[in-house]
């Protein structure tokens, strides 16, 4: 199949998606594929490295594991902080401003939807922007904590040929000598405000996501293979209400058979097309 044929197929799928979504308010679910054009890698896309993320149990029970995590998390956060929203993020913000989208539910922790201008964003897996104390509940801005980390560890530098994970971590060469940040209020253990592997999504977050789907007339899934159960559950909620489901993703997803339209393509181009065409059809 030639590139021209593939492009034609993608454009035809976009046309069908516009027809299906015309006149409807849409809820949007995004995954890591939305942020690849901002330089943040996907979990399962082509070329994605095999990863063994730290579990919540490892983080909480092992001091050395926490030290390794904090080195990698700090270095990864610096890369996240330098990343910029891409055209797909901006297109979703434009759809919200136009009244087409009622909000975004995202599996990403990079904060790029918020920085792009989306106002109603449900961050299912949390955000790297905040850090909380597991003992007293104090919350810290990640930027302020980063200054403390670098003051306590002036030697820390970004390794060459770094492989950033989509959840904002880097595998460090060594964590020896690293001073782990603690709560400045009570001295307790700090943890980024993200859902670790082995943790459940907070019930109130999932309910907020369900409310967005319930209030919408269609669901758009962008950049997610829907391997994580939270995503497939939202698709199932939409299917039970007989809402059209449009999926935009490179490669297969767990819900392709349930989609009204499946667009096998990059999210940035497709979302920009939807943002250009749907407001006039509302």
Descriptive notes:
With 282 residues, the protein is of the alpha/beta class. It folds into two domains: 7-40 and 85-125 and 201-282, TPP-binding domain (Rossmann fold); 52-82 and 128-194, SIR2/SIRT2 'Small Domain' (2-Layer Sandwich). 38% of the residues lie in helices and 15% in strands. The protein is built from nine helices and nine strands. The strands form two sheets. It has a six-stranded parallel beta sheet, with helices on both faces. Strands 5-4-6 form a three-stranded antiparallel beta sheet. Strand 7, helix 8 and strand 8 form a beta-alpha-beta unit. Helix 4 (87-97) packs parallel to helix 9 and helix 7 runs parallel beside helix 8 (229-240).
Give the helix/strand layout:
Elements: H1 3-21, E1 26-30, H2 56-61, H3 63-82, H4 87-97, E2 101-106, H5 112-116, E3 121-123, E4 126-133, E5 139-141, H6 142-152, E6 190-194, H7 203-214, E7 218-222, H8 229-240, E8 245-248, E9 261-263, H9 267-277
Parallel strand pairs: 1-2, 1-7, 2-3, 7-8, 8-9
Antiparallel strand pairs: 4-5, 4-6
Q: Give the name of the CATH superfamily of the largest domain.
A: TPP-binding domain
Q: How many separate domains make up the residues? A: 2
Shape field: elongated
Helix content class: 25-40%
> Termini separation (Å)?
36 Å
Which class of the largest domain in CATH terms? Alpha Beta
Overall pLDDT metric: 89
**What percent strand?**
5-15%
Q: Helix/strand/pairing class, anyone?
A: alpha/beta
Question: From the coordinates shown, what is the CATH architecture of the largest domain?
Answer: 3-Layer(aba) Sandwich
Low-confidence stretches: 1-5
Order of helices and strands: HEHHHEHEEEHEHEHEEH
Largest sheet: 6 strands, parallel
The largest beta-sheet arranges its strands as 3-2-1-7-8-9
- Computed over alpha carbons, the radius of gyration is 20 Å
CATH topology of the largest domain: Rossmann fold
Number of strands: 9
The number of helical elements comes to: 9
């Amino acid at each position: 199949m030639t590139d021209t044929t593939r492009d034609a197929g993608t454009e035809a799928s976009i046309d069908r998606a516009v027809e299906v979504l015309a006149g409807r308010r849409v809820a949007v679910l995004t995954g890591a594929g939305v942020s690849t054009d901002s330089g943040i890698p996907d979990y399962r896309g082509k070329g994605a490295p095999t990863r063994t993320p730290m579990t919540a149990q490892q983080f909480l029970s092992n001091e050395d594991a926490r030290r390794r995590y904090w080195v990698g998390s700090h270095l990864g956060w610096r890369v996240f902080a330098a990343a910029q929203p891409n055209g797909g993020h901006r297109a979703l913000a434009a759809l919200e401003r136009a009244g087409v989208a009622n909000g975004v539910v995202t599996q990403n922790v990079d904060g790029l939807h918020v920085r792009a201008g989306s106002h109603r964003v449900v961050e299912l897996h949390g955000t790297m922007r905040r850090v909380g104390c597991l003992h007293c509940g104090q919350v810290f801005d990640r930027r302020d904590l980063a200054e403390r980390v670098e003051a306590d560890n002036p030697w820390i530098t970004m390794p060459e040929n770094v492989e950033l994970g989509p959840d904002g971590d880097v595998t460090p060469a060594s964590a020896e000598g690293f001073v782990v940040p603690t709560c400045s209020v009570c001295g307790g253990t700090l943890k980024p405000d993200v859902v670790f592997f082995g943790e459940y999504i907070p019930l109130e977050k999932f309910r907020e996501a369900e409310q967005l789907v319930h209030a919408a007339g269609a669901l758009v899934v962008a950049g997610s293979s829907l391997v994580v159960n939270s995503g497939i559950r939202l698709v199932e909620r939409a299917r039970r209400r007989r809402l059209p489901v449009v999926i935009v993703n490179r490669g297969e997803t767990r819900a392709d058979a349930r989609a009204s339209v499946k667009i096998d393509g990059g999210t940035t181009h497709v979302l920009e097309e939807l943002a250009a065409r749907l407001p006039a059809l509302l």
